[in-house]
Amino acid sequence: MLYFAYGSNLHHFQMKRRCKDSIFIKKINLKDFKLTFRSKYRAADIEIKKNSIVPGGLFEISKSDEKKLDVYEDYPLLYKKYYFYYYGKKVMTYTMVKKSPFKFPTERYLNVVKRGYKDCKLDKKYLNNALKT
What is the pTM assigned to this prediction? Predict the structure, then answer.
């Protein structure tokens, strides 16, 4: 199945550790969403915003990878699954259940996300904008 990563799972080494079967395909943009950080974990989340985009990584993952991600993402309590179509193919990602106010991420978490942006060759301006809110 296809999985869209936009936070710490962009980090190729971490993603491989969590999901041994995962294969990074390419970078893509999720349209009409914006990146933010929230919850007591200060983790990445996406929310609907017209004319905005969230850059991320498209991965191929196995069924067992998905089960592992469900555990890491605290599904269905912290995150729920969100599906969208990319060129006719169904893609799964996670979005937080409770849309609590913005919370600046911890330095450790942010460094993992930054490394992921580098790994996937994403434009850092979207990350920087998300941190300004």
Answer: 0.98
